[in-house]
Structure formats: C-alpha cells, structure tokens
Design brief:
CATH class of the largest domain in chain B: Alpha Beta
Number of helices of chain A: 11
Distance between the termini of chain A: 39 Å
Mean pLDDT of chain A: 88
Oligomer: heterotetramer
Number of domains of chain B: 2
Distance between the termini of chain B: 67 Å
Number of domains of chain A: 1
Chains: A mainly alpha, B alpha/beta, C alpha/beta, D mainly alpha
Strand order of the largest sheet of chain B: 2-3-1-4-5-6
Number of strands of chain A: 2
Radius of gyration of chain B: 22 Å
Number of helices of chain B: 14
Helix content of chain A: over 70%
Largest interface: B-D, 52 and 46 residues
Structural class of chain A: mainly alpha
CATH superfamily of the largest domain in chain B: Response regulator
Shape of chain B: globular
Strand order of the largest sheet of chain A: 1-2
Low-confidence stretches of chain A: none
Structural class of chain B: alpha/beta
Strand content of chain B: 15-25%
CATH topology of the largest domain in chain B: Rossmann fold
CATH topology of chain A: ABC transporter involved in vitamin B12 uptake, BtuC
Chain lengths: 289, 414, 239, 327
Amino acid sequence: MLQTIVNGLLYGGTLSVAAVGFSLIFGVMNVINLAHGVFVVGGAYAALALWTGLRLDPILALVPIMAGGFVVGAAYQRFVIGPAVRRGSPVAALLVTFGLSLVVVNGLTIVYSSAVRNVSPAYAFFSVRIGDVTIDAVRAIAFVTALVLIAALALFLRTTVWGRMIRATAQSELAARLCGVDARRVYALTFGVGSAFAAGSGVLIGMIMPFTPAEEVQWTVYAFVVVVLGGVGSPAGAMLGGLLLGLAATLTQTYVGPVYTNVVMFMILLAMLLVRPNGILGSAFRASR
Amino acid sequence: MGETISRRETLALAGAAGIAATAGPFRPAIAQSTPTLTFGGTIPFSGRWAEIGQSVHAGYQTVVKYVNEEQGGLDVGGRKVRLEIKVVDDASDPQRATTLLQRQIDDGVQYFLGSYSSPIILPQAAIINRARRPMVQAGGGADAIFTQGYRYVFGMYPRASRSAFPAVDAFEALTPKPRTFTVVYANDPFSKPQGEGVIARLREKGMEVIDTVELPATVQDVSAMLAAVRAKTPDVLMCVTSDQTSLLIARQVAQSQTDLKMLFTSLGPQATSFREALGKFAEGITCISTWSETFPYKDPIFGSTAKFVEYYKKHNNLPLIYHQGTAAGCIVAYAWALQQVGRVDDPNAVRDALARIDIESLYGRIKFTPDGDGDPVLMGSSVTQVQGTDLKVIYPQQLAEARTLWPIRPFSQR
Amino acid sequence: MTAAPILEVEGLAVAYGAAFAVRDLSFSVPEGGIVALVGSNGAGKTTTVQAIAGAMRPRAGRVRLAGAEVAGADCAEMVRRGVTLVPEGRLVFPQMTVDENLRMGGLNARAAPNVTRNLARVFELFPRLAERRNQLGGSMSGGEQQMLAIARGLMAEPRLMILDEPSLGLMPKLVGELFGLIQRLNGEGITILLVEQNVRQTLQIADRAYVLEKGRVVLSGAGSDLLDDPFVRKAFLGH
Amino acid sequence: MSARALMSVALGAAAVGGLAWLGTVLSPFHLRVGLSIFLSAGMAIGWYILGGFARYYSFGHTVFVGVGAFAAALTLQTWRFDGWVLQVATGVGAAMAASAVLAAVIALPILRLRGHYFTIAMLAVALVCAEAASAFPVFRGSIGLTLPDVAPPSVRPERFFYWMSLGAVTLAVAVAALIARARLGYGLFAIREDEDAAQMLGVPTTRCKVLAFLASGTITGLMGALYALNLGYITTDSVFRGALSLDMIVNSLVGGMGSLFGPLVGAVVMTLLTKVMLGDFLEYHLAITGLIVVAIVFLAPDGLLGLAEKAWRRVRGGNAGGGADPR
C-alpha cells in the first residue's frame, strides 16, 4: 500500500508539471491548446538530441529546452494563435492548434521515425530502498524537479510584475488593458511560459518513460484531466490534480487491474466536470462561472 | 463482372462528378518493352503503425529492387517480368485502407501485399477475397483473419493464438526447468490472443502460471504491477506487449531491481534502439523473432538469408528487424508461385500455387495452413536473447547461435 | 465654458461588425470640469468612452487630447497620456488582493515610480481599502468594489478620469457618497467625464452634459439647464 | 409549406435520386469514395444538429459512432438473423437505440455545461466509453468484433453500402432540416445567439438542447452502425477514434457553419482531399491535412461556403464589412 502511494505520487508529479502549462494557457487565454502534447513530446525529443549529441544531462538540458519552448511558444501565440482568435473564434484557434500539431508530429516522425525513444542517463537505472518501499531514482529526481518548477512558476505569478499582469489579464482582460497592460504581450508571455513548462515536462517524461511522436495526444488528454481535476490556471491546482490523478492511476493498477486505469482516470474527469467543473481548487482566475 | 462499367466511362463519370482528381495513377502497365507486374496494397506510413509500416515497406522494396536491378526481372514462363510495388498510405485508418484498396482493385491490380495490423487487414481481406485476387501479408495475425473462410488471403504469421508457442517451448527446454510464470499481455487484438495462447500452452506443458496481468494498450507506469511481481517472485516474467510497453517494463524492472530469472518481452529487443536504451540491463532479455538476419536458410532469389541481409544493408538505412524479413518472404512466396504458374495474368492459379507452397526461403520454410496462416511449427518464430549488444537465436536448437543465458544476472547486481 | 478643452471628440463612429453603435458623435470636455454623458440603455455611452480610452478602435472621427490627435491609440498609450477609464461593472480583479489591484492601476511608466506615494494617497482617501488591503477583490461588497475600481484608476495619476456607470447597483446612501467623492476628486484637479443613468444627481454636479440617443448627441447644455429641459424631464426624470 | 420549401424538397429529392442512380454506374472504387463521403457527411450532419444549431461543440461525438457500431456488432452476434433486411434493421435499430439511450442518460448533466467545458466533457464521455469498450471483456473492443456480411448476394457490398449510407445521409439531412424549420430549431438558434437571453425570453432551453442532443446522437449512431457493417470488423480503435470526432468538426468548419450545406460541402471536400487524394503523398499527408485546416481558419474563417458567399457579394458589388477589432 505504501509502495503504491509512493508510486502514485511520483507519477503524479510528472503529470502535474506536464499539465501546468496547459492550465496556464487555458486559464489565462481561454484557449484549449491541442498542440500542448506536441510541446511535451518536442521537449522529450530535444532532450534526446542533447543527450545523444552532446551528452548533456537531461536535468541540465531543462534550461536550454525550456528557453527554446518559451521562444517557440511565444512566437506561436504571436503569429498563429492570436491572429486565429482575432479572425475566427476560440474554436478556430483550437482547430489551428490541432492542425499544427499534425504538422509537427508528422515532422517528428519523418526526422526521428516513430521508433520508441528513451533518454537514459546513468542514474536511470538506480533505485533507493527505504524499508519496504522502492523508489526509482530517476522518478524521484523528476518528481523533485517537477516540484521545484511548479513552485517557481507559482512564485513568478505571485510576486513579479509580469506574473501580476498575467493574472490580471486572465481575470479581466479589459480591466488589465485599462490599467495600461499590453494584452498581446501578456498573451505571448503566457503562451511562452506555458510552452516552456510543457517542453520541460517532456524532458522529465523522456527520462522516465519511452516515448514516440504519436504520444502527444495522450499528454494533451492527461493535461485536460489534471486541469479539470485540480482547477484551472493555478500551479497549485495542477499540482493537486496531478498528484490525485497519479494516485488514482496506481491505486487502480494495484487494486482493480491495470487495464482499467484509463477508464478510472477518465471517469474522474467526467465526474468532476459534472459535479464541480471548476476543479477542486476552483478557477484561479475567475471567481465563478 | 458484367455490372462494372468500363474504365473510360468511369473516368468520364468521375469528371462529371468533379472527382476526376481521384482517379488514380494505377494503370496496369501494358505498353512497355518489359512487362511489369504490379503489387498493390496499402501501408501505414503514418498514424499508429507508421514505424512498422516503414519496415514492412522496406522489406517488400528490397526484394523487388534486387529482382529488377540485379536479375533484370523475374523469370516467368520464359520471359523477364519487371516487378513494381504501388502502395499508398492508409494512415492506420481502416476506412481509408478499404477505400484505397478498392481503387487498386478497380484499376486492375491483381496481386496484393499486406498492410500492418489486424484491424486494417481484416476489412481488406473481405474485399480481396470477394475480388478473387490473392494477398500475401505480413501484418495481420488476428485469428479472425483466418477463420472467415477467406481463400485468397495468406499470412506469413501463424495466427495470434498460436504465435508465441515457441517461446513457451524454449523455456520448457531449459535446464533447470523454470517453474513459475507471470504472464503480462496488452489488451489489443494481437497481444491478447497471443497472451492467452501463451497461458494455455504453459498450462498444457504443466508449468505454473501464478499470475496474469492484462495491461491497457498504452501504459505510462507499471511500478504497481512490478511491486506485485516482486511479491510473488515468479521465475519468468513473460510480457506479450508492444515495443513501447516492453521498454517501459524492462526499464522499470531494472530500476526497481525486480530480480527475475528470466524476462521475456514479445516485442522490443528486436530493435537496436531498445537495446541501446537499456544498455547493460538489456542483457538476457528474450523475445521471439519470427525472423532473424542470422538465419542459415537458402533462398531461391538471393541465394541465402545472408545475401539478402547484405543487399538490404547496402541499400537501406532503416535498421533491419524481423518485419523486413517477413515482408521479403511475401515477395519470395509470390515469385515462386508466379513461376509455378508460368504467367502473370492468372491470379486464381497463383492463389492455388500459394496454397500448396512449401519452400525454403530467406525467411525460412514457407508453408501455409489450409486456413491461410503460417504453419505454427514450420513457420513458427525463433526465440532470441540479448547477449552483448546483439540478439542471438537460442531456440529452436537447430538454429541456435548461442547458449541461453539462464538464469539471467539479477538486475540488482549489474 | 472658459477653460480650454482637454478632450475634443469630433464625428466619432464605432461599430461592432457591421452594426454601428456610435456614429457622428461630437462633444468636448473642458480642462478641470465635470462633463456627463447621459442616455438610455444602448445609446452608445459605454462604446463611446471605451473608444476614447483606446479599448475599441473607432471607425471614423477624431479624438484630440490636449490638442494632440489620439484616435486609434491603444489603452496603454491613453493611460500614459493621463486618461483612465473606470469601467462599467467595476471589473476589479476578483482573485487578486486589494493591494495587488491597486498596484495594477499604477503600472504605467508615468505613475510607476510613485506607487508608494499614490498608495498612501488612496488609502487616505479610502480608509476602508486600507483595512482590507490583503483581502481578495472578489470578496468585497459592491460599494467597496466601486471604491477599489476608482482607487485603482487614481493610481494611474489621471488628468482625465472617465467613470462609466459608477453608481450602478449601489445603495442610495452610497450613491450620495459617490457623487460627493467625484466632486472632491474634481476639486483636486482631475477632469471628470461621467457616464450615468442616474440622471438627476449627475446633472446636479455636471458643468455640462450631453444626451445620447442611438449613438448620437440629441441634446446638450449646462447640467442645471438640462435638469429643467422638458425632454430630459420626460425621458429621464419621470415627469 | 412555402413555395421555397417545396422547391428545396424537390431539389433535394432530385439530388438524392441522381446520386442513387449514380450508384448503379459508378465503379467499385468510386462507390467506396461515395460511401466514405456519405458516412462522413452523415456524421458531420449529426454533429451539426448540436454543434451548428446551438453552438454546443462536442469534441467526443465519436462516442456515438462507437456505441452505435458496438451495439450493431454485439446484437448481430447474439441474434443471428437470416436475410439482409432483418439484419440491417436489427443492427441499425440497435445502434440508434443504444445511442439514443446514451444521449438520454448523459444529456441533462452534460448540457448544463457550457463552452469549453461542454467540449471537454464530451471528450471525456468518449474516452470513458472507449476505454470501457476495451477494458470490459463483454464488449470485446480490444480484440475486435466481426460483423456478418449483410449485403444481399445479388448486390456488390460497396454498392449496397453506397445506397444504405446515401439513405442514411438523406434521413440525417431531412431530420436536420425539419429541426431547423421547427420551433425546436428557433429555440436552438436562440441558444446559439445568447443562451441566457433565450431563457429569459421563455425559450425552454433545456428541452431544446436535450432534444437536439438526442437527435444528434441517434443520427451519429446510425452512421456508426453503417460504418461498422461496411468494415465488417471493428475494434475500439477503429470506431472510437478521436479523428472521427475531429473530422465532424473540421468538415463543418471547412464547409461553413452557416447552414446545413456547410457540413455536406465540407465532408465532400475533406474526404476527397484527405482520404483519397493524399493517399499518394505517403508520409506527408498528415502535415498536409494539418496545413489545410490552418489555411481554412486563416483564409476562410467562415468556411468554403462563407468564402463563396463573400465572393458572390463582391461580384454583386455589395460591401463585406470587416469585423470590429477589439484586440
């Protein structure tokens, strides 16, 4: 039982960090980014490239990869999502994100083939035993990194001027603009930060599990589940949602059967939507809807 | 088929309906100096099965390229015939796959090669059978393909439920004999019957299955499952899973130091990337290979498996795995049947020749059951084990390249 | 009207898609005065002030601020130039504290260096907000939120403050206080452009007022004159 | 019935008659193209009854395809009838009934949600049903279900399914057109414009949404049954495909959300493009499909019909007013 809970939490940490960027973008801009999983998987491939090419440890690789994710994400918002929202509607934006994810996945498949890949630094095969509980070193490292990243994001949103501008824009775009906030820049910033976190989570995921280009869909869907469970927009919500989901997954695996894991996860998503669509912590930005 | 209108009328109609662009480029080649024989079919170049699709395609292409470029064509009834492969991307989507296949049938393609994965092959099999054109495929093993009475569909694999028998037989042959097994299988159309077949075979051979685990088609974490495995300590963990799940399992087995006497994963170790990803932890993992590049067989086209391998490696960058071998086997089988018939325009006779084929090829023996799938004994897989950085055949005995590492070195001591 | 106009609007037209909410609208606001825009629902008042504040792009017309052409400038620039709109419905940031709300108001480059001083000033003006400094904006009462919205606007150090329906949803007692506050702010030198449905009280404090109907000015004059105007009495004052 | 309505009914009947006649002369491949188009169009129309009329964008409509397909397959495996009429009637009937039941069960809770939340909730419903179809052995979704060959021996199966799916799409269009003209339709349009206002004006919004949802789900389920019968073998992956949900949306948006012709035009264009022509582009076709979607959003935000309309207005010299640009 204890082992199951530990496994669940470790897995959940990864889910949290993989969802927090999605949550931010959804919360601030009300845009469902179907290309979210592409950034995750893209991060994993970037880590792979840096690992095989330069032997750069994935944890160190987080810095350039998140920076890259930021730039790409910000540009993506500035030149693609923003114009799409202005031209059409949020649904048009959603379609654009979908269309581009097809393009990128196709590109990744051509470059890397759809072979299963994996980033395996030396510590990928160690584990620590505490009493009866075995903890995979790499999962523990990923978990701690995830916590640090999420805490850093929370701190950024809470204490910096730019963080305050992001939150303000999310709560009322008009009021924020009337305060002199340049909404376009805030949106680009938000998308950049969200994408940086997606790419960063991809690095962690690439460390702990095998991946393929087609996997992106799954990470987008998990992001949905985590965000709806925890609450939109806040790092704390993503953290809570991810951990709960991780626990639910491993508990199901152990006590119901692995094959039912996804059924249970998606049932939770559905139940949550019907009972409390704003998530356990509620929307971080809107008082209610 | 009297009800089918002529091609020209079809084109005219298509133009009228504004879909002229859809009329394909698959005109049977007639007015060329060397007659050309076209193999049609679809391949998943994208979507879920894209990677394997590329391997299968490379296998087909290699034989055709060799026959055309090195032998000036295939000798059929005293004439050289150029071989040609015209396959389109079915994107792993069955609806699309049937539509595209129908277009080739309409366009007069007479011989077909297989796509990959049973959900695509099955609907195609129905169409192929109705059109009375043969298909030799290396991609669908589901039992249902071979139990519908389709006379024109041949598979290089034994049907799924029989296909992992050799692995069980290989473990039975070990000394000391492993006693307890945990069987893990993925819940997909191929792995599930294969896994159930393994369980039945194990019990039949008097070995103890202490636990069975059904995994979803994709998994992110198996630590909970491995905790249970550690608690029950089976001698052998047999995983009938996709390469991705296998890699995850192997990694987590290594990380969590789940010490097993043997780890078997049906798919995975065949790929170099799998072995590289695991490094020293890959050592000793066994898998089935329906084909291995080290097979010592003779082949009517290349001369031997080794010559095929050499030729393949000279012309391809894609790592050579068993899918290329199986796919190549399809063309070899066709070539033999065509030569038996002595002409290229009689698909029915070619079908009958395929039904009675029994030859040695680069792939091994090719002989189909009356239902069209591979003979479970003659065409059954070999069992291979990762030793060093390579994959060595360890079973059946007559093909064995190395002694089985048994039991394997505990993961905790690596 | 002796003072030079701080704001001049000429031939303004604003549309949503193909539907024009405002067309050919002209008025002016003298420096240091209180000018009111009144009219029924849908007359185009909110659209007008949003276009002036840069939140919407006018289709046609001219907007001059202290003589400089500013039509089409965005919000950020208008705030920098000293125009602050306190929007209809207050729009405080519900999930931010009072303090954070106020700091948002003082973002612009001109006011940013003086945040501490400005905070002290609005806390002095609204002691209630000082008490609730760390409370979330969304958890406060309607009256408090209105104070917060105005205080946030003051943080930007406006020369011209536009108030859009500030009395909406307030208890009558608070409405009285609000109008007192507006006069006090005006007394401190801030020019006020007031959009209101509370016509009587508005006209009582306005130097000049414009009556809007269907996106056009139909009547204008000194506030006190309009109070006696038969049309205004009939349409807005219920006589 | 007004003259205009009569006219459109007559035109529609003529079109259906013409298409049915085409079924007797087309080659098997073109029949398959036709039936692919009809299936896509039927699904798109099914989706449009909710998504187009009421702007409730379902991102999981494939759930009805899947439930319909599984209902048909499971029933036909349990009760083995002889004769195609009985077989088709049973399969299709079971599919429509199962979809209707599913829609009825989830309608009330799920239609309380709006906007993105409804969209995600439908996705969740689809995911739950898909996973359940795989995980629970009774449904056999993971290993697959074989359906009987229902086409009568005297008709080629692709021709048979061409006609069947033509019939189904005709039914779908008819139902959708009737809804659009009925009070229900006006209710849905009111919801599309402003649900709260509609409610305040006395539109029974809940009833309208539930009815539309039922019709939408049942029609999509019908298409699902035909989809499955045509394939002959289904697994969870082949009928609960996220791609099918997306196709319904993409088809409607590509065609244009303005009228029922939108999803029809979209289905024709997109099926030809992605399912037929791009088969020749091998590994690039996904990227090309993606680019087409992006291009449509940017170049023709109102769909192909919207584009055509704009062009028409330009020809006639009218002016197409641009939208306000608050951002």
